[in-house]
From TrEMBL:
Cellular localisation: Membrane
Alphabetized UniProt keyword annotations: Copper, Copper transport, Ion transport, Membrane, Transmembrane, Transmembrane helix, Transport
Family statement: Belongs to the copper transporter (Ctr) (TC 1.A.56) family. SLC31A subfamily.
Pfam families registered for this protein in UniProt: Ctr
Ranges annotated as spanning the membrane: 51-72, 84-110, 116-136
Name of the molecule in the record: Copper transport protein
Keyword Plastid: no
Keyword flag Transport: yes
Species the sequence originates in: Lithospermum erythrorhizon (Purple gromwell)
Gene Ontology molecular function: copper ion transmembrane transporter activity
Length: 155
C-alpha cells in the first residue's frame, strides 16, 4: 500500500467506528438506541453507568428545547417605547441566542438516543403549548400585525 503520510490505511471498520486505529474511543451510534450509556453534547457527559446524570442530561435537553420555544414566541420589546437601533440589536441578540440553543438541541438529538429524542420533542411541544398556543392567551381573537422579537419556528 502506498505511504499516505503516516496514515494507517489498514484500519478495520470496527476500529474506525470506535475512534480510529488506536481504539480507545466510544462507538458513535448511527441509528436510534435506548439506554443511559450515551454521550450527549460533550465528551464523557453524562457518563456511563450513571442513571442520575443521564436523567439530569434529559432534563437539561428538555429545558433547552422549552426555552427555544419561549424565545420564539415571547415578545420582549414593547414597540411604542423602543428605539429602532436598540430594539434591532436586542432582537438580533435574542435571535442568535435562540438559534444557538436550537443547535444545541439538534446536536443532542444527533446522539441518536431515544430518550434524548423524546424529551427534545416534549420540551418543544410543552414550550409551544405554553408560549405559542391559544391555551394561555388572554384573547381568542387573532391579532393582526402581531410581531415577535424573533421569527417563530412555525411549520
Amino acid at each position: 500500500m502506498e505511504d499516505m503520510g503516516g496514515m494507517n490505511m489498514t484500519t478495520s471498520p470496527s476500529s474506525a467506528a470506535s475512534g480510529g486505529a488506536g481504539g480507545g474511543g466510544v462507538m458513535m451510534h448511527m441509528t436510534f438506541f435506548w439506554g443511559g450509556n450515551t454521550e450527549i453534547l460533550f465528551n464523557g457527559w453524562p457518563g456511563y453507568d450513571n442513571l442520575g446524570m443521564y436523567i439530569f442530561a434529559l432534563v437539561i435537553v428538555f429545558v433547552i428545547a422549552f426555552c427555544v420555544e419561549g424565545l420564539s414566541h415571547y415578545k420582549f420589546i414593547k414597540e411604542e417605547k423602543s428605539n429602532n437601533v436598540v430594539a434591532g440589536l436586542l432582537q438580533s441578540i435574542i435571535y442568535g441566542f435562540r438559534v444557538g440553543l436550537g443547535y444545541l438541541v439538534m446536536l443532542a438529538v444527533m446522539s441518536f438516543n431515544g430518550g434524548v429524542f423524546i424529551v427534545a420533542i416534549g420540551g418543544h411541544t410543552l414550550g409551544f403549548m405554553v408560549f405559542g398556543s391559544r391555551i394561555f392567551k388572554k384573547s381568542t381573537l387573532p391579532t393582526l400585525g402581531k410581531s415577535f422579537d424573533s421569527i417563530p419556528t412555525n411549520c
